Each structure stands twice: as structure tokens, then as C-alpha cells.
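C-alpha cells as discussed.
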């Protein structure tokens, strides 16, 4: 780190309420910037610093990065970002905002939002709901879909740079970090990278490397007019911002898991996959998660130089980075039964507790059928989309994706009616073929309850109707060897009992 400019005068000017028409000023410090909240505005001053990955060392560079920050963040937060504003020297030697004099520094001008709407604060308050996180996953999927493809970035060598840079900087902190843990992180990361280098390069060739956010953790997400909004993306280094879309998502997933919300991380991941169909990125998700945790370890260590209370956090992030490389053996779970028995609800509840990383991946026929037919997951399909041929193709897709994921070491929960014995047999055969533990779960519930559940569904890919429910008037018998559950019992109890039986 190199300090190049004394910004004391500018900071004092921005802290002064008189600069803002007498409004009280709240100051927020980060390792690379200082934000001043006053009245309806937020003013962001970039620290005059230079790191290996960031350069704000000159006035010209800070001016360029302020303008770039406005441009890039308008992609996701157009109502928050206003313009780049100079701090100028007045004729009497003082300072002014956007005056006629010579610029002495530059600011990003933003419209202020309630700090209680920051997702990191909402996480601490326990107010991140499943509906809100589903909306966030949809927002990120749409952003990635529309982001500029950058074929000159990303790929295996870009991830090698991330790993090497992380290790070099973490080692530079001397005895702050355990040397053996760093050795494990170094060797494990490179081994996983080498095994997946062709996959990373293939994803780049397939357009999966895009100009993303680059710093997509909870502190950079807020509520604007009730909607999850991404802001404060990386503007200073395209090598950090132009990355594999799943690596971009991994920062959020890692952050949620770090805060003890693997349940929300699993929800976001599975909804994102439902929206994008990007199953191919899952084989390298643990590497991405580990790299993101290592990034946070070094950022927390940098902050720890001025705030020693951040040091334990830095060490915790390093432990998390190492932990992601220790993937447990995968398993295959199926959840079957008639429509309305609560298959998807149970699958979603138990998924975070199964497997490594962010938990098990949900393969739901309701989602895969629509992906296969090229329709939005919330669009209702015509009746002929449920004919025997299309249904067989859908189950074939479930089996194909499950096989690929299991071979990549990822646990799977297949969510379907499984009323056809042939499909049940094929998925059990797949588990035997791949040598992974198998658990079949069969749900049953009274018809009136199933109808009530169908009528109450919102924002759900299922096309099941009450009319369809009434075709299943006779209760289906549980297949031999599958765990039979009455899904009219409380969900928490059912999930707890299910996990105890299938994981022991």
C-alpha cells in the first residue's frame, strides 16, 4: 500500500455541515473510500491509495474512476447515481463543491438511501426474507443475462492470477495468518484449478465471462423502492469486474454463508440456476467460493491495520476459504408424490443441510421442463407440454444433470412426482452407478390440503391446478424402500425427521 496524497483538508471540508447547507454529516469509512452522508445526498471520496489491485494514487486517476463508477453503476442503480463532482479551490483559498476553480479532488455524487436498507444490516437484523432473496436472485440473473460479454477476460489464467494474488498478499501479512493454512489453501486451490482449467476456458468461450459487478456481497446491495438493488460495483480494475458470472455470484453466496445463512445462500443459488440454467458453473463453485473468502480475508486484514477488531474476522475468512476445498462426498435424494404434497417445500428446506458448498442442488421437473422448452419459469405452459414424450424428455434431463453434478462431487435433490416406476428405477440405478448414497422420500397428504396448497401458490414454477389434483383422488402408495412421510405435519418437524433419517 502506498499513500500518495494528503486529503486531510478535503475530508475536513466534507465533514463540515456548512458544506452541505447545515445538514448533519455521517461518515462511513472503508479500506478504499470515505462516504459522507448529508441531507438527501451521499458523497464518496476515493482514498489516495495504491494497492496491487487498485490505483487511486493520482488526481487524474481518481477523476477517471469517479466517472467510471457512475457509468457502470447506472446499469443496476440508475436512480442512486448522479454524477462525478470536483472539489475545487476557491479564489480565497478555500474549497467548494463543483466550483469554477481548479479541482483538488473528485467525488461520486449519489442520492442517499436508508442505511437500514443495506442487506448486510438487514442480515444482522434477521430481516432478509426468502421472498426478498428470491427477488435478489432474479435481479442478479437478469443483470448477468444482459451484461457485456468480455471474451478477452476470465478463463483459467485469470483465476490463476486471483489465486496467486490472494496467496501472495495473505503471506505478506507475516504471522497474522497460519502458515500451514496458507499452504493448504495454495495447494488445494491450484489442484482444483488445474482439474477445471478446460472447463473455465470453455465457459469463457461460451460467453459466461461478462462485465459483472465484481464486488457482489451484502454490503453492496440495498433496497430501493422495495426492490433489491446492486450498487458500488468494481470500476477500478476490469480484471476484477470482468469475470465468470458464477464467480460474481459466489461473493454473495460466500457472504451469506459466513453470516450463518447457508439457507439463504442455497435459496439464492437454486433460484439463480432456475433462471439461468447454468448448471455447468457448479463444478467450480467451491473454488470460486474459496477465492471469494480469501479476498475477504485479505481485505479484512488490510482494515485490521487501523482497526485491530477486524483481525479475527480476517482469520475466520481464511478458515472458510480452506473449508470450501474440503468437499464432502455427494449424495442423491429424491422427493416424490402427488401434486400439492409439498415436495418442493420440503426439498428447499433440507437442501442447505446436504452436501458441501452452499448445499444440495435442486433438480425440479417443473423448472427443467420450462428451461428445455425455452419459456420463463413462471410462464404457464399449454397442456400438450405435459404429454408423455415431453415428460420423458424432462426426466431424461433430470437424470443427465444429476449424473453430471454427482460426478462433479455435488449433492442433488431431484424433485418430481416420480409416479412412473421406470423413472424411479432409473434414478436409483444412477445412484448405484455413481456409488453415492441414495434416499427416496415419498410425501402424502389429504386431498383438501393439497388443493389448498395449490391455490395458495405464488411466484412458483409449478403449473399444477386444483383440476390436476383431483385426478389424483386415490392416494399413491409409497414405493418400496422409500421413506413415507405425512406432509400435513409441521414443516420444521418433517424436515428435521427427514434429515435425521437420510443422513444417518
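Sequence:
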Amino acid at each position: 500500500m502506498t499513500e500518495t496524497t494528503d486529503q486531510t483538508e478535503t475530508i475536513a471540508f466534507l465533514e463540515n455541515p456548512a458544506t452541505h447547507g447545515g445538514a448533519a454529516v455521517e461518515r462511513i469509512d472503508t479500506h478504499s473510500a470515505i462516504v459522507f452522508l448529508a441531507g438527501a445526498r451521499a458523497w464518496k471520496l476515493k482514498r489516495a491509495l495504491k494497492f496491487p489491485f487498485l490505483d487511486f494514487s493520482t488526481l487524474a486517476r481518481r477523476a477517471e474512476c469517479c466517472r467510471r463508477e457512475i457509468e457502470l453503476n447506472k446499469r443496476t442503480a440508475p436512480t442512486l447515481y448522479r454524477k462525478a463532482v470536483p472539489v475545487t479551490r476557491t479564489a480565497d483559498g478555500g474549497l467548494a463543491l463543483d466550483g469554477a476553480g481548479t479541482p483538488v479532488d473528485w467525488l461520486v455524487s449519489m442520492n442517499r438511501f436508508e442505511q437500514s436498507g443495506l442487506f448486510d444490516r438487514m442480515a444482522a437484523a434477521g430481516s432478509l426474507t426468502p421472498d426478498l432473496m428470491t427477488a435478489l436472485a432474479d435481479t442478479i440473473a437478469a443483470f448477468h443475462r444482459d451484461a457485456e460479454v468480455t471474451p478477452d477476460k476470465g478463463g483459467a489464467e485469470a483465476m490463476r492470477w486471483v489465486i496467486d494474488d490472494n496467496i501472495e498478499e495473505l503471506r505478506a501479512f507475516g504471522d497474522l495468518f497460519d502458515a500451514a493454512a496458507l499452504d493448504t489453501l495454495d495447494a488445494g486451490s491450484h489442484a482444483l484449478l488445474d482439474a477445471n482449467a478446460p472447463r473455465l476456458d470453455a465457459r469463457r468461450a461460451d460467453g459466461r465471462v461478462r462485465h459483472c459487478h465484481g464486488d457482489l456481497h451484502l454490503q453492496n446491495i440495498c433496497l430501493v423502492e422495495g426492490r433489491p438493488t446492486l450498487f458500488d460495483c468494481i470500476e477500478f480494475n476490469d480484471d476484477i469486474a470482468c469475470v465468470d458470472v458464477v464467480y460474481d455470484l459466489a461473493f454473495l453466496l460466500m457472504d451469506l454463508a459466513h453470516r450463518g445463512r447457508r439457507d439463504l445462500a442455497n435459496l439464492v443459488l437454486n433460484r439463480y440456476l432456475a433462471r439461468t440454467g447454468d448448471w455447468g458453473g457448479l463444478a467450480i463453485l467451491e473454488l470460486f467460493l474459496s477465492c471469494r473468502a480469501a479476498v475477504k480475508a485479505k481485505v479484512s486484514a488490510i482494515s485490521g491495520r487501523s482497526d485491530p477488531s477486524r483481525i479475527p474476522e480476517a482469520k475466520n475468512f481464511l478458515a472458510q476459504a480452506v473449508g470450501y476445498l474440503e468437499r464432502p462426498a455427494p449424495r442423491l435424494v429424491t422427493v416424490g408424490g402427488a401434486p400439492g404434497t409439498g415436495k418442493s417445500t420440503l426439498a428447499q428446506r433440507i437442501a442447505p443441510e446436504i452436501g458441501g458448498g452452499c448445499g444440495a442442488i435442486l433438480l425440479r421437473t417443473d423448472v427443467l421442463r420450462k428451461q428445455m422448452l425455452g419459456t420463463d419459469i413462471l410462464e404457464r405452459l399449454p397442456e400438450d407440454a405435459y404429454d408423455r414424450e415431453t415428460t420423458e424428455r424432462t426426466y431424461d434431463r433430470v437424470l443427465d444433470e444429476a449424473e453430471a453434478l454427482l460426478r462433479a462431487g455435488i449433492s442433488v435433490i431431484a424433485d418430481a412426482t416420480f409416479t412412473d416406476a421406470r423413472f424411479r428405477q432409473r434414478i436409483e440405478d444412477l445412484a448405484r452407478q455413481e456409488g453415492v448414497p441414495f434416499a427416496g422420500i415419498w410425501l402424502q397428504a389429504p386431498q383438501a390440503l393439497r388443493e389448498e396448497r395449490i391455490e395458495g401458490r405464488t411466484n412458483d414454477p409449478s403449473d399444477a391446478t386444483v383440476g390436476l389434483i383431483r385426478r389424483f383422488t386415490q392416494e399413491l402408495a409409497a414405493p418400496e424402500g422409500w421413506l413415507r412421510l405425512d406432509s400435513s405435519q409441521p414443516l420444521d418437524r418433517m424436515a428435521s425427521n427427514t434429515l435425521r433419517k437420510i443422513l444417518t
